[in-house]
Amino acid sequence: MARPIIIDCDPGQDDAVALFLAMSSPDELEILGITTVAGNVPLELTQRNARMMCDIAGRKNALVFAGCNKPMRREAITAEYIHGNTGIDGVDVFEPETPLQEQHAVDFIIETLLAADAHAITVVPTGPLSNIGTAIEREPKILEHVREFVIMGGAMREGGNRSPSAEFNILADPEAAEIVFNSGRPVTSMGLDVTHQVLSTRERVARIRALGNPVAEATAGMLSFFHRYDSKKYGSEGAPLHDPCTVAWLLKPGLFKTRVCNLSVETQSELTLGHTAVDFWHVTDRPHNVDWAYEVDADGFYDLLSERLTRFGG
Ligand code: RIB
Ligand code: CA
User: Fold this and answer.
1) What's the pLDDT tens digit per position in 181-205?
2) 175: domain range?
3) Does the reported pTM lie above 0.85?
4) pLDDT digits over 280-305, tens only?
5) Where residue 54 sits, what CATH number does that domain have?
6) Ligand 1 atom closest to Cα of residue 169
7) From 196, 242, 275, 282, active-site residue
8) Is 242 a catalytic residue?
9) Would the CB of 126 count as within 6 Å of ligand 1?
């Protein structure tokens, strides 16, 4: 029986690959809807980009919704310096045929969760948590219908990527993140500690490009662009493939090592806003509210991604 999920994203090349990976696996993941949020680029682009990926993947019947165009309590920050002005530089932009649903993403999330059985739906946010935090604040009853949150966000050993101490998704909307981590429902977090281990090296990108189908082509094109900033910044070869770690966890959790512990979000300090204080060594008595990923089999991750992308062939 496929696990019902809602993917909440801000494409973003890595969000796009996460969508492809999820769409490649309908026997395991039933995508109830793709909700989009302002993040890497403004909402009008993230929703367009998500719909483009549905076209490329041949899933024009996917339900795509636009959500919050800014964080819950703050002005938006964006990341064109990493993702390019389109948000998905590396593929040619086109007007997608996949329609944008009329309904607001937050209303879709609330309606879908309230209509589901208890603990039935897995929510997979790969961008700022503005849609999710807003939905929980507006209708807390939805939490009874959430099986778990599997998010891309946070950093412990790796330090921050958008500030010295904060990862972008959490920094972009720290109040929303605090709501999710304090929701009382299970949260698995794929932070920079693990996403920085899955680098899209030239060899891995070439392997994907050689698959020779439109989805693999688009993936290789996006990764060939997406790595530039991080490769220069970290001196590594290839960009961290952040967001697909969430879907890979759902498909093959054995690829990852995780530890249940406390994660608290800094929402007050200007210096460390958005910092995720991960109590990995249990030095406090704070509640264990996160399953924190800290290690991944990178080759196994790319084997999974490449194998699943072959499914778009023929
Ligand atoms: O910090 C990495 C995260 O921020 C990824 O989700 C990327 O897409 C951006 O949203
Ligand atoms: Ca993202």
Assistant:
1) 999 999 999 999 999 999 999 999 9
2) 3-312
3) yes
4) 999 999 999 999 999 999 999 999 99
5) 3.90.245.10
6) 4
7) 242
8) yes
9) yes
